[in-house]
Structures are given as C-alpha cells and as structure tokens.
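During the no-cost extension, the postdoctoral fellow (Dr. R.K.) reprocessed legacy sequence entries with the updated structure-token encoder. One reprocessed record is reproduced below for audit purposes.
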Amino acid sequence: MNWYLDPWKRYAQFGGRARRMEYWTFTLINLAIWGLLFVFGIMSSGGEHGGLVPVLLVCWSFGLAAFIPMMACAVRRLHDTGKSGWWLLLIFVPVIVLLVFSDHPFANRQLQDVLQYPIVVAPIVGGAILTVFLLLGGNPDVNRFGPNPRESA
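Re-encoded structure tokens follow.
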C-alpha cells in the first residue's frame, strides 16, 4: 500500500528518485480507480445522457487531483534512470503545436494538412519513448538526482 500512498505524500516533490515499483503501482492503481469510477458512473446513470455529466465531473475531478502527483512521480522515475524530468514534456509538444497552429490566422489549409500527421504520430512516438525510459532500471549508484531509492528504503 505504501507504493501507492508515498506519491500522494510527496504530492509536488519533483526532486529525488522513484523506483519502478512506486511509479508503476501508482500509475496502474490510478488508472484502475479512474476506470472503475467511469464504469460505475455509467452503470448508475442508467444510460441517460443527463446522468453522464456527474460521471464525467467525478472522473475529471479525480484526474485533476492525481495529475500533479502523477507528473511528480514520473519526473522522479526519470531521475532514477539518470534522465532529466524535462523529457516528460515530450508528450505535450504535439498538443502545443496543435494549439498554436490550428486557429492561427496565418495558418492556411495546406499548413494544417501538413501538420495533421505529425501531430497524430508524435504523441504516440513520444509516449513510446517515455514508456521505455520509465521501464528502464534505475542507476544502481548515486546519481545527480540523489541516492538510489532501493538502498534508502
């Protein structure tokens, strides 16, 4: 249970290191909770469209509450592998490009067509790269982000 509770206790601590077990336990349990909230909400709404709004509010509320600890835990996990936490931004780059260029007055249809495919593919590639980084084993020794969390636990 500590693997899940420790990231909540370290809510916005982006410094230090996190073990694979801590990151993946926290991530998968949060995903399961979010999924269960959604499924139980859909079942309790009886399939009515008006009943879907409270379900989405509960899911969004949980997602917003868990967002900062998830990012902090991911940054600490990247630190454990010796990588900077800035690698986490890799997944957000296509979203920023989309927001900047989609409604820009100088963005003509041809530019939007050219940007369409990289914007779709980049989060997939960025997500795959981040997943590999998050699956890598941590540095066994002290690195620039702190001591090995296995030894300090």
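The mean pLDDT is 83. The longest helix spans residues 52-80. The remaining legacy entries will be reprocessed before the final report is submitted.
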